[in-house]
From TrEMBL:
InterPro entries: 6-PGluconate_DH-like_C_sf (IPR008927), NAD(P)-bd_dom_sf (IPR036291), PDH_C (IPR046825), PDH_N (IPR046826), Preph/Arog_dehydrog (IPR050812), Prephen_DH (IPR003099). GO terms for molecular function: prephenate dehydrogenase (NAD+) activity. Keywords: Oxidoreductase. This is Prephenate dehydrogenase. NCBIfam families: PRK06545.1-6.
Length: 314
């Protein structure tokens, strides 16, 4: 178990909303932590805020290799290949994780760079519609869920390090296999983005009168459509297979609802939707107990616990 100063240092690659928040949260718990960003403006802002940041990726990674730091890849999916190429060149043996919203695609790129032995994927289920360093806070991950992957061959020591970072940031950990993570987030994150974009379009098509009448349901239903489009593209396109499956399922739900409405009733949709929402509201975060990383069968047992909605806590 980490708490703070005795835990490994943290090197964050990409100081946007998520990476900048990881850097702040790691420092707030007393960890040694530094970051890299390609933009001098972002690095200047981070340094002005009192953080250790640089535009020199090689130096950041060499320092990580020298100090056995945990390296956190916090760039959008299209930039992951470039960043991992640098990791493979300058710090090929470090403990490595990421925060990218899709997990199978990242794992494939990690493997292509020969970095899978000490890689454990991560995905903090926290964010806002803002982006960039200035949008980050040390509190962003407080009480959030942070997925830590349990794929075949996962190194238990690195898994513990990544889970400790998530816990240090104030989150609880849900263990999941990468493919199962991608199928789950297609439903609860990527599909909501697609539906929010479609709903925003529907409101705009109603012109100024419709938008002028819009209140809570429109605001809440379209909130994530305010996200930078390129970030949404990276999430949805990077998880296309799982997203297409859940989108087809939802189109079928809408088609049936449409036919039933044409016959005069929304009853089936509203009863089923209300029940499903209640299930979400009543879910419990029961702690995972009796499993330690490295125990016999720990990978399958943690996956099972994650499937049951259980969480890894301190
Ligand atoms: P952001 O736009 O706030 O920050 C992205 C950072 O990556 C910036 O610092 C940018 O300079 C850097 N970057 C972009 N292209 C780069 C390149 N080619 N080389 C080097 N650096 C590059 O985005 P964010 O919201 O912090 O997202 C970062 C990651 O976190 C993404 O992979 C995203 O999927 C994931 N994520 C986002 C959210 C969210 O709600 N925003 C939630 C969980 C995970």
């Amino acid at each position: 178990m980490s708490t703070a100063a005795s835990a490994p240092p943290v090197c964050v690659l990409g100081l946007g909303l998520i990476g900048g928040s990881v850097l702040r949260a790691a420092v707030a718990t007393g960890r040694s932590a530094w970051g890299y960003n390609r933009s001098p403006q972002v690095v200047g802002a981070a340094v002005a805020d009192g953080f250790d940041a640089s535009t020199d990726l090689t130096a950041a990674l060499t320092r990580a290799a020298d100090t056995d730091a945990l390296v956190v890849v916090a760039v959008p999916m299209p930039a992951v290949d470039t960043v991992l190429a640098a990791v493979a060149e300058h710090a090929p043996h470090v403990a490595l994780t990421d925060v990218v919203s899709v997990k199978k695609e990242v794992a494939a790129v990690v493997t292509a760079h020969g970095l899978s032995a000490r890689f454990v994927g991560g995905h903090p289920m926290a964010g806002t519609a803002e982006s960039g360093w200035s949008a980050g806070t040390a509190e962003l991950f407080r009480d959030a869920v942070w997925v830590v992957t349990v794929d075949d061959g996962t190194d238990p020591g690195v898994w513990q390090q990544v889970a400790d970072l998530a816990l240090d940031c104030g989150s609880v950990v849900v263990p999941a296999e990468s493919g199962e993570h991608d199928a789950a987030v297609a439903r609860i994150s990527h599909l909501p983005h697609v539906l929010a974009e479609a709903l925003a379009l529907s409101g705009a098509a109603g012109g100024d009168l419709a938008l002028g009448l819009a209140a809570g349901s429109f605001r809440d239903g379209t909130r994530v459509a305010a996200t930078a489009p390129a970030l949404v593209d990276a999430m949805c396109e990077g998880n296309a297979t799982a997203l297409l499956a859940t989108l087809d399922e939802t189109l079928e739900v809408l088609r049936i609802a449409r036919d039933q409405l044409a016959d005069g009733s929304t009853r089936d949709l509203t009863r089923a939707g209300h029940k499903a929402r209640r299930r979400y509201e009543q879910r419990e975060r029961r702690p995972i107990t009796g499993i330690a990383p490295g125990d016999e069968g720990w990978i399958e047992r943690l996956r099972d616990a994650g499937r049951r909605g259980q969480v890894w806590t301190r």
